[in-house]
Amino acid sequence: MIVTFKTKAHADIMMFGDIAVKLLKLMGHSGTVPSALAAEDVPPALASLKKAIEAHKAAKPQPVKPAKKEDDEPEEIPVDLAQRALPLIQLLEAAAAAKTEVMWDQ
């Protein structure tokens, strides 16, 4: 599943469903898709998401140099939750500044 986040103040953002639901829950939302945030609910959701991401960063151990495979190619490094959240944070910041709602659907 792909979830698309939309607001009048920012370009649409698409992300994989599992990550989107996790970020929605970090925002204090139930994780329901489709759904929306009213304009007045965007700033508190943004604050909750930022706080959760900072806590995640603080609790995460320092990255270890990736091990090499037999063919001398490094193993893939997973994308951190903070990096995945950045586009959504930017969308929420734009929506909060414009005092507009945020919607998401499949």
Model description:
The protein is of the alpha+beta class. The chain has helices at residues 17-26, 42-59, 81-98; strands at residues 2-7, 10-16, 35-37, 102-105. It has one domain (2-56, 81-105). It is built from three helices and four strands; from the N terminus they run ββαβααβ. Strands 2-1-4-3 form a four-stranded antiparallel beta sheet. A hairpin with a 2-residue loop joins strand 1 and strand 2 (10-16). Helix 2 packs antiparallel against helix 3 (81-98).
Provide a quick synopsis of the model.
The protein has one domain. Helices cover 43% and strands 19% of the residues.
Count of domains:
1
Order of helices and strands: EEHEHHE
Distance between the amino and carboxyl termini: 7 Å
Give me the side-by-side strand order of the main sheet: 2-1-4-3
Please state roughly what percent of the residues sit in beta strands, choosing from under 5%, 5-15%, 15-25%, 25-35%, 35-45% or over 45%. 15-25%
Q: How many whole angstroms does the radius of gyration measure?
A: 16 Å
Major β-sheet annotation: 4 strands, antiparallel
Provide the helix percentage.
40-55%
Which structural class do you get from the secondary structure elements? alpha+beta
Could you say which overall geometry the principal axes of the C-alpha atoms support? Answer: elongated
Outline the low-pLDDT stretches.
Answer: none
Compute the average pLDDT. 90
Would you count the extended β strands for me? 4
Q: Secondary-structure blueprint of this entry?
A:
Layout: E1 2-7, E2 10-16, H1 17-26, E3 35-37, H2 42-59, H3 81-98, E4 102-105
Antiparallel strand pairs: 1-2, 1-4, 3-4
